[in-house]
Amino acid sequence: MKKIVLIVNLLLACAGMTFAQTQTPAKTKAKPAATTAKAVTASPAKPATNAGPLKKDGTADMRYKANKDAAKAKPAGPLKKDGTADMRYKANKDSTKKKN
């Protein structure tokens, strides 16, 4: 009787393994070609000011003093506790629009 139970368990285990291997992975929705083309052709992020040389990806190269000084510049309006510009105020919104 023990041998029969063991054989049945082995057969069920093998059958379970074969079903687990034949399951297809969940398909992800492919993005339309137009949106992926936009993402590829979109320009990289640009620094707030083009005070000095840029890296290949378009960001400021922080090895140069001109870029370091531009990064330290204070925003026009109030700041948050962490020191970044508080975008709830019009002065900060206007200053970012002018730079971009």
Question: If you had to describe this structure to a student in words, what would you say it looks like?
Answer:
The chain is an all-alpha fold and 100 residues long. Helix content is 48%, strand content 0%. The radius of gyration is 29 Å and the shape is elongated.
How are the SSEs ordered, and which strands pair?
Layout lengths: L1 H21 L10 H9 L23 H8 L17 H10 L1
Output the keywords.
100 residues, mainly alpha, 4 helices
In short:
This protein has helices at residues 2-22, 33-41, 65-72, 90-99.
Low-confidence stretches: 36-48
Termini Cα gap: 81 Å
Helix content: 40-55%
Rg over CA atoms, rounded to whole Å, is 29 Å
H/E element order:
HHHH
Category by helix and strand content:
mainly alpha
Q: Could you tell me the mean pLDDT?
A: 74
The number of distinct helices, counting runs of at least 4 residues, comes to 4
Q: How many DSSP E strands?
A: 0
Roughly what fraction of the amino acids lie in strands? Answer: under 5%
Largest sheet: none
Globally, the shape reads elongated
